[in-house]
């Protein structure tokens, strides 16, 4: 896996596929700011909101099929 170095006030979602679904982790550098706050909201929705997760997975399938 590539090493990612975040700068101050940057955040990232780290997504992985598991047998049980999607694994969601978050990393941030510096104080919790806008970027980290947004990542936290998105991560929570991915984990807790089945409709949101399914909507994203449906879009991934459309993208893979070339249906942007």
- The separation of the N and C termini measures 29 Å
The ordered H/E elements are EEHH
Uncertain stretches: none
CA gyration radius, whole angstroms? 14 Å
Average of the residue pLDDT scores: 91
Please estimate the helix content.
40-55%
List the total number of helices: 2
Instruction: Based on Cα principal axes, name the global outline.
Output: globular
| Major sheet: arrangement of strands | 1-2
Overall number of strands: 2
Label the structural class. alpha+beta
Largest sheet: 2 strands, antiparallel
| Residue fraction in strands | 15-25%
List keywords for this structure.
single chain, two-stranded antiparallel ribbon, 2 helices, globular
Explain what you see.
By secondary structure, this protein is of the alpha+beta class. 44% of the residues lie in helices and 24% in strands. Strands 1-2 form a two-stranded antiparallel sheet. The radius of gyration is 14 Å and the shape is globular. 4% of the residues are buried.
Short description:
This protein is an alpha+beta fold and 68 residues long. It has helices at 34-48, 50-64; strands at 11-18, 21-28.
Give the helix/strand layout.
Layout: E1 11-18, E2 21-28, H1 34-48, H2 50-64
Antiparallel strand pairs: 1-2
